[in-house]
Amino acid sequence: MLLRFPPSLLSGLLLAGGLAATLPAAAQKVRIECLSFPKHSSESIELLIGPEKVVDVTLQSHALSDPLVVPSLPVWKFGKSQVSDEGVFTFKTYGEVKPLSAARQLLVFIRKGKDAAAGFNILPLDANKAGFGANKMFIMNLARSRVAGDVGGKRFILTPGRHIIFKPAANRGENLCFAALRFERDKEWRTFFSTNWPILKNSRGLVFVFDDPRSKSLKIHSVVDSLFEAPKPG
Question: Which 3 state secondary structure label does DSSP give 138?
């Protein structure tokens, strides 16, 4: 029989230690959030957390998913489960990733096709303060060409598929930083993006550089994630 836990219930169980008591000692609890790219409407997949046990995971591109507390397994497998008429459980894996040791992780799902069934490459990020925390920026190059950046005084070059995490400095006033992105073509660097970006206080930013098939040019997709937590009552 397939056991399915709603995200809110699973988080409560794990935090209370009820489910943790039935897991191996090595299965620590991890808080995860997810984001997918290229842009796609919200889509539900599942994370396999044990024999015939899954939890729903929502993938979206405009914002991070709601936090979910799950066991840190040797490998996280994401996909879809099915139970046959005979009661046989099967799980089709769309993508898998080895968790980091961090207690908070952000999982970036890079889609291989138009829907989840086409599969994902999954990038785990340390989402603790010392990792990809407040005031920091994540930039990933998903274009075919190399991309160079000058953002808040940080200069870098990203080959296709690579990313960088850094804290930009305010170099255009108190709350702004200069940001320019260039791509390489015929051994020349050409600017395709230049502006002043706000410094992300109590937030973090994610930027994806990609080839737009419609315009035949490079574009960016950005997401700002607020880390503000409302004070607990009482």
Answer: strand
Q: Are 59 and 92 in contact (CB under 8 A)?
A: no
What CATH number labels 132-227? 2.60.40
Residues paired with residue 110 on neighbouring β-strands, in sequence order: 37, 121
Give the integer Cα–Cα distance in Å for 67 and 69. Answer: 7
Q: What is the pLDDT of residue 232?
A: 60
Q: What is the pLDDT of residue 14?
A: 44
Q: pTM for the full model?
A: 0.85
CB-based contacts of 7: which residues, under 8 Å, 6+ apart? 55, 56, 57, 66, 68
Domain ranges of the chain: 28-127, 132-227
Average pLDDT score over residue span 183-195: 95
**Could you tell me which CATH number the domain at 28-127 has?**
2.60.40
Per CATH, 28-127 and 132-227 having the same topology is answered yes
CB 156 within 8 A of CB 149: yes
Exposed, middle or buried, 215 (CB in 10 Å: 0-12/13-18/19+)?
A: exposed
Percent pLDDT > 90 in the chain is: 78
Reference 14, options 50, 77, 68; nearest CA is 68
Q: What's the DSSP call for residue 11?
A: H
Distance CA 93, CA 46 (A): 9
Check residues 114 and 206 and name the one with the higher pLDDT.
206
